[in-house]
Amino acid sequence: MKKILYTVAIAATLLSCKTQNATTTASAATKNQVDVSIDLKNVKDDKVMVTIMAPSIATDNISFNIPKTVPGTYSTDNYGRFVDDLKAYDSKGAELKVVRDGDNTWNIANAKSLAKVTYWVNDSFDTETSGGMGGKDVFSPAGTNIIEGKNFMINTHGFVGYFEGKQELPYKVNVSHPATLWGATSMNDTDASNENDTFLSSRYAELVDHPIMYSAPDYVTFKVDDMDILISIFSPNGTYKAADIAPAMETMMRAQKKFLGPVNATKKYSVLLYLSDMKTKDAKGFGALEHTTSTTVVMPEMMPKAALLEQLKDVVSHEFFHIVTPLTVHSKEIHYFDFNNPKMSQHLWMYEGVTEYFANLFQVNQGLITEEEFYNRMADKIDQSKRFDEKMPFTKMSKDILDAKYKDSYYNVYLKGALIAMCIDIQMRESSNGEKGILDLMQALSNEYGINKPFNDDELFGKITSLTYPAVGEFLNTYVAGETPIPYEQFFAKMGVKETTIKKPGNPFLKDETTPYITVEPTTKEIKILPNTELNSFMTTLGIKNDDTILAINDTNYNLDNIYDMIMLSMDWKEGDAITVKIKRNGKEQLLKGKVTLPMQDADGYHAVDATKTKVKEAWLKG
To answer: Of 401, 303, 287, nearest to 343 (Cα)?
Structure first.
């Protein structure tokens, strides 16, 4: 998952017989498949009906579960709270007794006679207040959406449950949908009709790993070497088309595939992009969630194209690299994931950290960003990571990430986790005189384990040490499992790189990530410049003063209702762009004209200074 940051369903298959004797024989036979039907045609009160035909059950009672949490989210989301009116029936249509146990479990009596379970599913997008960034919201890319006749975001874990003890049975999913909608997914549809799709999964975990987005067809396909790529988009106001996104995605994915080389053998990959209009009950948590052969992405539709493409480059590349870990290299906690009583792995530093590091390293490796930009990104991660407890053992935090004590540290997996990966990469380059790096390590781990062979959680450090160098094992035990803060400057020095102060552009309306220059007048919704604060160069150059009211920028009126649009658009401004700002000062309107002067801020950065280390540095960044 990257903050910054997803599914499908099935149809019932019934046994038919020619004689009464055959019927008796069939009912006694063992049924080792779970058949699911999702009805997207008959939406009721913004809810979708799901029917699950039960497999053979040999116990008097059985529990039916909807996931509490799913892989990649590392949060407790309780998807069962979106399920209403669950009922169980025998083969004659008689209702069986069902008792709900908490948010996610229903206990069914007389289970030996159970034929099917039905229930209604609400979507999570309608309930969001912060998009999974706080409170009880589900992170949007892991959520669900129901807009009758227009869009269904089917993260299967939000629609389909499982019978306790039956998770390893195959699933057959049938989705009936309006002919005007098309389901974007990496799964193969075995039904040729234009109003019905059928998908087969070998087990529940595989089903949950495959999202589907239904909407009016708007997609682009292309090949990267031997991999088929699908880019599908839902833009509610038609602001963007898949064709607007695809060229940048193709450039990026070709670079990623070249960077990975033989590490990746995926044959099909889908990007399901949902753009939120932010003006109705809609998704508010932006980012993406990884799956083995796809990713679900949620972004604001109002984002300028250049900013959107830049965000997608970082976010989608991160999710794509999850193909390596945890989707190929993972522990038993991941492989045999318990959706309702999860046991977490110690190795978020690898699952998210190595992935995030690759998402940055490949860009400098393939010439998409400069060496200095790469250093600046790593410096920014160092700065942000210091807001967290630097002495907290990363393995401990990872293992207990669902506990209240540690859950607020999760974002650090993208910061310190990526820096851990960088330091391992540097250490391997130094130990091998530039010949090997962390990509070689992940290739070796992929060969050692693979998708269907998980490792024992507490054995990974030993295995990594045996595949690399003693210094790497010492690093892991000291800085990842231990409490010692990482001396980043020492690792950069190994590559001939030294810390320095750099200038970087800031946002015209934000002093820093949490402090604005502007406020809103509650009674009028007007946007005002804060009093008694030193203004930045953008404002002083244009002649904006404290207490001014901003009425419009470049002929677009702004107030509380679209202040987010104003800030988002400002992210796309370039130094020297022409700009007009209509203000109100002391009750009188004025029009200020000029050019954009981006405010510059001091920040920690790095640059290469030791020419004797050029060879190993080039192997690190370009090898």
So the answer is: 401
Residues 6+ apart with CB under 8 A from 72: 1, 142, 289, 290, 291, 322
Which residue, 449, 419, 424, 418, is CA-closest to 439?
424
For residue range 141-151, what is the model confidence (pLDDT) as tens digits? 999 999 999 99
- Strand locations in 399-537 (E): 497-505, 518-520, 527-529
Decide if 115 contacts 54 (C-beta within 8 A).
yes
> Residue 9 has what pLDDT?
25
E runs forming strands in 225-355: 227-234, 268-276, 287-290, 294-300
Start-to-end CA distance of the chain, whole Å, equals 27
Beta carbons within 8 Å of 341's beta carbon, 6+ residues apart: 68
Q: What is the DSSP string of 35-47?
A: EEEEEEEEEETTE
> Rounded to two decimals, what is the model's pTM?
0.83
Question: How are the residues of the chain apportioned to helix, strand and coil, as percentages rounded to the nearest 5?
Answer: 35, 25, 40
Q: Is 419 helix (H, G, I), strand (E, B) or coil?
A: helix
Side-chain half-sphere CA neighbours of 238 within 13 A:
1
> CA dihedral defined by 529, 533, 537, 541, rounded to 10 degrees?
60
Q: How confident is the model at residue 623 (pLDDT cuts 50, 70, 90)?
A: confident
pLDDT average, residue stretch 508-525: 88
For the four alpha carbons of 107, 9, 12 and 188, in that order, the dihedral sign comes to negative
pLDDT given at position 46: 96
The H-assigned helical ranges of 283-365 are 305-321, 332-335, 348, 355-365
